[in-house]
Amino acid sequence: METNEIVVNNLPKSPIAESFRVFRTNLLYMFQGEKGKIIDITSAEPGDGKSWITANLAISFAQFGMKVLIVDADLRKGRQHRIFGKVNHTGLSDYLRGLTNNKKNHDKEQEKEEFYNLIVDTGIENLSLMPSGPVPYNPSELLGCRNLDKLLKIAKEEYDVILFDTPPVSILADSLVICKKVDYVLLVAAANKTKKELLVSSKKSIEGVGGNLVGVILNQIAPESSKDLYESYEKYSSKKAKKDENIITKNVKKLSKLVSARGKQ
To answer: Which residues lie across from 37 on neighbouring strands?
Structure first.
């Protein structure tokens, strides 16, 4: 498990860890006490940090005492197994292809057994992972099959929160297949990198298939200091951390309003 990836777990007092707790609180408010909520986390383009966001947001839910599952639905370039230091021999692609059990008629217990056979322990309490699995030749079609609906049903019964890590919206249809079937969609954007026009088009694509886009997460905000990022986190006072948290929150709100306004034009 990489320290520089799992910030919420390894640097719990850092401003970034606190920001994830703020995101978690906002999402819990939307849940209104209901369990089994499914969140699709995607991005406008590659390199925006959606997998990192997914992993750390999942950890923040797990630290809150909730039973959490990450499903790596990036069937082409899945990265969650690397973040948590696990192998990717089996996973979501196997479940969708139905290779774990060749019987055509499954009862509920058999379906659950197939599901759990593909789950790995992340090493973090309350947090499980279903890796992406072997790369299939038809990812988009596979994600659109009926087995995905079975997986969603089981996951909602077994977990409090399920986070899907899906490919960028602008280059692949994979995310659009999933986002219309989940409860919420979060769009990740990189500060000073992601173009506004791309954010607007991603928003329209998600909403065009019926996805419930609830927010934009602004990622990769440059630190004020040129020193090592993680050393600088530990030197922040609680007052400085609160100031940085407020700046991040304001930037996210501004970006969300901008994307919403541009999308209506």
So the answer is: 161
Residue among 217, 137, 212 at smallest CA distance from 182:
212
Strand ranges across the sheet with 161-165 = 120-121, 127-130, 68-72, 161-165, 37-43, 184-190, 213-219
Token pair in block for residue 187: 């769009």
In whole angstroms, give the CA distance from residue 252 to residue 248. Answer: 6
pLDDT tens for each residue of 196-252: 888 999 999 999 999 999 988 888 876 553 344 444 444 433 444 444 445 444 555
Count of residues for the chain? 265
pLDDT band with cut points at 50, 70 and 90 for residue 92? very high
How crowded is the C-beta side of 162, counted as CA atoms within 13 Å?
25
Non-local CB neighbours of 193 within 8 Å, separated by 6+ positions: 47, 48, 220
Residue 127 has pLDDT above 80, yes or no: yes
Which residue, 262, 250, 198, 263, is CA-closest to 221? 250
pTM beyond 0.70: the answer is yes
Dihedral sign, Cα of residue 61, residue 41, residue 54, residue 90: positive
Angstrom distance (rounded) from CA 49 to CA 194: 11
d(CA 176, CA 208): 9
Residue 14 contacts residue 237 (beta carbons within 8 Å) = no
Q: Residue 132 has what pLDDT? A: 96
Q: Distance between CA 161 and CA 70 in Å, rounded? A: 9
